[in-house]
Amino acid sequence: MIFAIFKVIGYILLTIIALFIALILLVLFWPVRYSANGKFDRNDISVKADVSWLFHIVAAEFGYSDDISAWYRILFWKKNIFDENEDDWDTAADSEKKYDDKENCDEDAALDEADMVFHIENKVESEKDSIPAGTENEAVQNREHIKRKKHKNKRTADIKDKLSSKKKIFYKIKSMLSDKADKAAVKHLKEEGFLILKRVCPKKLKLNLEFSTGEPDTTGIALGIIAMFPVCYKNKWNIKCDFESEEAYVAGVFDISGHIFVISVLGAVIRIMLDKNCRRLYNKITK
Fold first, then answer.
1. Pairing of β 68-74 and β 45-53
2. CA-based torsion, 150, 155, 156, 161: positive or negative
């Protein structure tokens, strides 16, 4: 009897461990898919982007047209990020009422303060009339001189701080360029960064574009510059130039989609963290 109970407990524990391992493997090896599409013209822009994982069990969406909408969903539970309920409106109304009451009180206090300031100014003016003109001018000049001196000292201190910080950054960069270990760390970071970028970049990137700069010559130059990038002809972008328009504008439709494997990004991050040269460079920068 006792053996049977332990046997059942063992099966339950093995099942839990197997489910936990299966969940970890799904997170690592099941791709996170993303897509974005939209259009833009002279007067309007609309964008829709979504991210999903494991047959849309976990999903999120963002949209922008006349207003902003966003939500995320886990299984059957969905939450709107920009949801404005009645309680929020009631709170806003109460806050507005409190603000109006406070504003009225502030106006009354301001009137009393203005009367007091008026009496003080009259008193000061009467006292000024009794002070000789030469003494008053000397006091004003002294105050202006002290103010200018303080401002000059502050500017000098700020410039010194900026120069000292830039000097430290310069020496850090110089040491990085001269140290072999730091060079190896930078090289490793560059390789891993390009690898992460390659894994994250979209697999489909379609674009239909029409534009004009308002001048035929600059429109042609802009088209030549755009055509220099391989992303244009590799994805067969459809680009149309308007040489007759006298005003600058951009209009088009785009569609982007791709996927990310968590294991690829996580592997690159772990390799960076385990590299002793990268750790040494991190400690040197954060000192």
1. unpaired
2. positive
The residue written with tokens 């030469």 in the block is 134
Cα torsion for 34, 197, 252, 247, to the nearest 10°?
150
Nearest to 255 by CA among 41, 30, 50: 50
| Dist. CA 220–CA 214, nearest whole Å | 11
8-53 pLDDT, tens digit per residue, is 999 999 999 999 999 999 999 999 999 999 999 878 899 999 999 9
Dihedral pair phi/psi, residue 46, rounded to 5°? -140, 135
Classify residue 287 by burial, with Cβ atoms within 10 Å: 0-12, 13-18, 19+: exposed
Q: Which residues lie below 8 Å from residue 69, measured CB to CB, with a gap of 6+?
A: 61, 62, 63, 80, 82
Rounded CA-CA distance 233/220 in Å is 17
CB 188 within 8 A of CB 278: yes
User: What is the mean pLDDT of the segment spanning 168-183?
Assistant: 75
Distance CA 275, CA 272 (A): 5
pLDDT per residue as tens digits for the range 251-279: 999 999 999 999 999 999 999 999 999 99
List of residues 6+ apart from 60 with CB closer than 8 A: 50, 51, 52, 70, 71, 72, 73
Residue type at 199?
Answer: R
Are 50 and 275 spatial neighbours (Cβ–Cβ below 8 Å)?
no
